[in-house]
Amino acid sequence: xxxxxxxxxxxxxxxxxxxxxxxxxxxxxxxxxxxxxxxxxxxxxxxxxxxxxxxxxxxxxxxxxxxxxxxxxxxxxxxxxxxxxxxxxxxxxxxxxxxxxxxxxxxxxxxxxxxxxxxxxxxxxxxxxxxxxxxxxxxxxxxxxxxxxxxxxxxxxxxxxxxxxxxxxxx
Length: 171
Fold this sequence. Notes:
The protein is of the alpha/beta class.
């Protein structure tokens, strides 16, 4: 009897592993659709970008709060694009100032087993996307944003990033 149960479990494991979906919802119980890799609930909270002095090896799509130029930036077409006015960003008081690392661990990768890209959180997929936290009027409804906070403002229909001094909107 044991042999038959084991033989039945092995094909079932292969069947279900092939249908597994690598999707994560934070603050909600369901995903919008199958094209979503990471999605957030409806609370007035955002993603807080890492505050860095340098970002060696950054690839297109990398978002950071750059302490050196004091701006929220994105790597685009191999160059940094400021998403806020340079020189205005303030330091994130909650950022880890140390250099604590776990040997062999470069960050969390979602959507694949590994990634060659550097980052704290790497979303690795050619068919799935990140759905930013959605907040209506972020400048009014996130009362104490932290430098580097990023959301999708549903009232403005734009990406909103907070640099520690001002909300900056991008369409």
